[in-house]
Design goal:
InterPro entries: Gate_dom (IPR011642). The protein is mainly alpha-helical. It is built from 14 helices and no strands. The protein has one domain. 70% of the residues lie in helices and 0% in strands. The chain is globular and about 55 Å long.
């Protein structure tokens, strides 16, 4: 990801998403932010979007789309590990992200408010590719350590909770609830360890519902606040993603249950 950003390689394919910027009411220059968020991460997307003169509505719509459709390669691998095909996860997140963000364009402009004053965002720059690789190795090692500590703590917490008699009698319900909680708060990347561990014991229907919901609505705090800093509307982002996450998860689960016959 850092190498792609360093050499600005994604700018060569940004034109592919330019037609969608007008559909979403975003400036054409936002196409590079969108493509960076889809293939890299939200921080890269914000780095490209920060210089653009966007209002609260535009920041909110961008946040909704990228909240659903970001880090596709990394999180697609995690979904594949859980048991969801790449074709389904990519299709759901790209088309679902566009559809959900488009519905937000119908919300009256007067309802969009910026709860936090905008801030400047500075992307780290490197003098050479070697400096970039060294920094990437350090950051990756630090991130890995944080994830290991976080997931270890959560697993210990989960195992402790499961020791109670009440929980043992409803272990599957606890696994479903904890999987949703981990994905909703931590996200797919940070919550991967919990999701992989807990979803192994779930029925196919429950697994399909949880993963579909989380692909639409995950990391609801961190991802949202990153855009709120620049003027996006906190309430609209959360409500739109929650409502559509529940709605699409329910509808798609019903469709696939009837077609596939799993339970």
């Amino acid at each position: 990801a850092d190498i792609l950003y360093y050499y600005n390689l994604l700018s060569y394919i940004a034109f592919l998403v330019e037609p969608f910027t007008s559909l979403l009411g975003l400036p054409p220059e936002a196409s590079l932010a969108i493509i960076s968020g889809m293939f890299l991460n939200l921080y890269a997307a914000v780095a490209f979007a920060a210089p653009l003169d966007m209002d609260a509505q535009q920041w909110t719509i961008l946040a909704i789309f990228l909240g659903v459709c970001h880090s596709l390669v990394v999180e697609g691998v995690i979904m594949k590990k859980i048991g969801i095909s790449n074709r389904y996860s990519y299709t759901l997140r790209i088309l679902g992200g566009l559809f959900i963000a488009y519905t937000a364009t119908f919300i009256p402009t007067s309802l969009y408010t910026s709860s936090i004053s905008t801030s400047e965002f500075s992307q780290e720059t490197y003098t050479s590719i070697y400096d970039l690789l060294a920094s990437s190795l350090y950051n990756a090692s630090l991130l890995t350590l944080k994830i290991i500590l976080l997931i270890t703590l959560l697993i210990f917490m989960m195992d402790y909770i499961k020791q109670s008699k009440y929980v043992q009698n409803s272990a599957k319900n606890v696994s479903k609830g904890f999987s949703l909680f981990a994905g909703l708060i931590l996200g797919i990347t940070y919550g991967a360890g919990i999701l992989i561990k807990e979803t192994n014991s779930l029925k196919k229907r429950d697994l399909f519902f949880i993963t579909t919901f989380l692909m639409i609505c995950h990391a609801i705090i961190e991802d949202t606040l990153l855009f709120v800093i620049f003027g996006a509307d906190l309430t609209i982002i959360i409500m739109v993603r929650l409502i559509w996450g529940i709605t699409l998860a329910y509808l798609l689960t019903e469709i696939y249950t009837r077609r596939s016959g799993f339970n």
